[in-house]
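The instructor's notes for this session suggest beginning with a concrete chain rather than abstract definitions. Hand out the sequence below and ask the class to guess, before any prediction is shown, which regions might be ordered.
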Amino acid sequence: TAFADMKLGWSFLIETDQTISSAISLNIAGTAAGPITLYAASEHVTITQSANAAHFTIGSTSTRLIFSKLKFANSNGTKTSAYALDLANSGSTLCNQCVFDSTLLNSAKRTANNPRIKMVDCDINSPSGDGLECSGSSGPIVVIGCRFFECGGIGISQGAAALYIQDTIVYSCTGDGIKTATGHIEPVIIRN
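After discussion, reveal the predicted structure:
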């Protein structure tokens, strides 16, 4: 794929709404000094996934990715794998001012290899499952200035990772607003 040829520091401008029909695998290496960035030309260009799949699967070699001002949606009738981001990398992913539509199962699912995720000023609107599902191990989860609204499951699920939440609203979820893992690192929750 074209993404396999990306270089450190590349940015991809998404100018118009897009529809994809399978998960896009991002197995590329950005760094703190040269992250790979996908961003919208205008406020919240929508990427709609038509399959029961993640928008982006972030694999084991990814180290630094930024998604900015994008809106993620899913048009498939089945939602068992309808995540915006499926994180299985050992790197760092930043979502900045993104919108996660009610047509998704989760905004992001983190499962393995200590991936770090930071969500800043994002809206997670009525997903059918958890707002942010983190079942993987110790990579930290940082959520600042976000709104988790009417999640069909838990708003934010900690897993076994460090959790920092600041200036975030979690409300009207079917499950717990914030679920922490027993016996793991205590979450830090400020001004919520």
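Then share the key points. The chain is about 0% helix and 45% strand. The radius of gyration is 15 Å.
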